[in-house]
Write a structure and sequence with these properties.
Two copies of one chain form a homodimer. Chain A has a six-stranded antiparallel sheet, with helices on both faces. In chain A, strands 1-3-2 form a three-stranded antiparallel sheet. Chain A starts with 32 loop residues before the first helix and ends with a helix. By secondary structure, the first copy, chain A, is of the alpha+beta class. The first copy, chain A, folds into two domains: 62 residues, Winged helix-like DNA-binding domain superfamily/Winged helix DNA-binding domain (Arc Repressor Mutant, subunit A); 177 residues, Beta-Lactamase (2-Layer Sandwich), CATH 3.30.450.40. Chain A is built from nine helices and eleven strands. In chain A, strand 6 and strand 7 form a beta hairpin. At the A-B interface, helix 1, helix 3, helix 4 and strand 5 of A face helix 1, helix 3, helix 4 and strand 5 of B. Chain B binds a DNA duplex through helix 3. Chains A, B: Keywords: DNA-binding, Transcription, Transcription regulation.
Chain lengths: 283, 283
DNA sequence: TTAACTTTCCCAAAATGTGGGAAACGGCGC
DNA sequence: GCGCCGTTTCCCACATTTTGGGAAAGTTAA
């Protein structure tokens, strides 16, 4: 909601939407204080890991009192910490909670047990374990070297854990997306058709459906030079132990010039076997 | 506050507190909805990484409506994610934010550059980098092996990052505590005297002050068999680049039987040199 | 499909967040 | 150590919002 300014043009009006509605009619209700407080967290970026209370007032339209009220509540919860006078950064609670997730995440544990061997089989190549949360795909773990030598460059994926991936692009995401239950995909399509089209997934429902069905049939997505001009990626879904749903995706990333190597089918097979091993270890 | 039920007995009444006050008088104001919503995050533990909405209602005294309202707000912010019907877990946003902290944290970056060499110098031993946030000490990074062989056992500190350390116990914390500006220590003493006493820091202000002054003079804390019966730890403060304040602490952990080794003074010197290197690299 | 459950929606009443300013606090320079 | 200034909390009347009970809508499993 926050990313869609009123001036943006919607590609197509949703069927059933009231036409001729006055411009200022708010589509969504005004956010309550709860949501407003959590917007504070949006303000932190790699470029601005420390934020001043004045900036919050300015950017989010808070009054002094409100800004400090929110900051205090978040500080007391440990989500924020005072960096110095008037400046606040993200707090220790986030690191603690993330550790909790790391400890509790069965996918990560299974991956940590299985992936090292897989990663070691191919030098100058890394393995990514990704997961879907709600409607976001995140890299959960990387195994193998931090960087790959490709196209004469050294391409590194540093600090992979927590790296957000676009939901409608990239092998790791598409493989997950395609494995979702159809109604869920349909719901996503209705909500985010424009994004899907922009990502080249298809302009209408039929096209998207067909594209994803194809991926589901293949059981893999291979991209060459999409994520990075010099890299290739092969991705397969990781299913839950009972096989009923997707738990995430397993991706092998290598130099584009190394793909297809001697036996791409074998590479794929090995990846799928590993994904099955991970599945088998899920709680 | 949530951990202090009304039935608990306070060890000692704070000086200046109104005596003879009727039992039901709330010492602190009733928490607002902002704080209440954030209490939801407290409910997640390693044993219970997934929580049901019913449990929230029961444990926190919410009504159905309120519970779902809070959960929805937290979900929309990405702090929570729906695991399955009626069950929620911590959300992707936490992993993302933690990554942001990892990227932005100068202490961690400096540590990652300097610590590997230090860790490699002594086998069967690890190095911990810790940091103070607000009034919590957290392990920020571990370098070296995941486990130490000591006392015939294999003692592992797995997933060190995010591990919370008690503020008034342990070499890593004490070294930081002692390096804090005196007014800050004094404030902590007033607020948490009982905890300090329980941790053996001293029963009154004079004792605490003296103890910490001693640590400050030494520039290190060494404990043997405190954190774990079979382990020894030597900890030194890491100062900010200008040396004006503490940025964290650097700790060498080793088997208790290996300390003191040939030259404990050299070990300490090396640690302090490394801490200085880290300081020099701080932004 | 039914059945059981989860989740959202609705609305009047009441509780609580809001905001302006003043007061307390705390760091920094002199 | 003292005083200055920006930061942070406190205060309180007002009204905007949260609240909660139940009903409706949505989702999953059988």
């Amino acid at each position: 909601m926050s990313s869609q300014t009123p001036s943006q043009i919607r590609t197509e009006m949703l069927p059933g939407a009231t036409p001729e509605v006055p411009v200022e009619a708010p589509a969504v209700a005004a956010p309550g204080s709860l949501v407003r407080m959590l917007e504070v967290l949006d303000q932190f970026t790699p470029d601005q890991p420390v934020i001043r209370v004045d900036d919050l007032q300015a950017r989010l339209g808070y009054t002094k009192s409100t800004a400090y009220r929110y900051v205090k509540a978040l500080c007391d919860a440990g989500l924020l910490a005072q960096a110095s006078q008037g400046r606040y950064s993200l707090g220790p609670r986030i690191v603690e909670l993330e550790r909790l997730m790391r400890i509790a995440d069965p996918l990560l544990q299974a991956g940590e047990a299985v992936l090292p061997e897989l990663a070691a089989e191919m030098p100058n190549s890394m393995v990514l374990l990704c997961s879907l949360y709600r409607d976001k795909v995140l890299c959960v773990h990387r195994e193998g070297p931090e960087a790959i030598e490709a196209g004469g460059r050294r391409i590194s994926i540093l600090r992979a854990r927590g790296l957000p991936l676009p939901l409608f692009q990239g092998a790791a995401s598409l493989v997950i997306l395609a494995s979702l239950p159809t109604p869920r995909i349909r719901a996503l399509f209705v909500q985010r058709q424009a994004e899907m089209a922009a990502a080249g997934l298809g302009a209408d429902w039929a096209a998207v459906r067909q594209r994803l069905a194809g991926i589901r049939r293949d059981g893999q997505v291979t991209t060459v030079g999409r994520f990075n001009r010099h890299l290739a990626a092969v991705s397969v879904p990781v299913r839950s132990r009972d096989g009923a749903q997707v738990a995430g995706s397993l991706t092998r990333i290598m130099p584009a010039e190394a793909y297809p190597g001697e036996d791409p089918a074998l590479l794929l097979q090995r990846l799928q076997a590993c994904a099955a091993q991970v599945s088998a270890r899920l709680a």
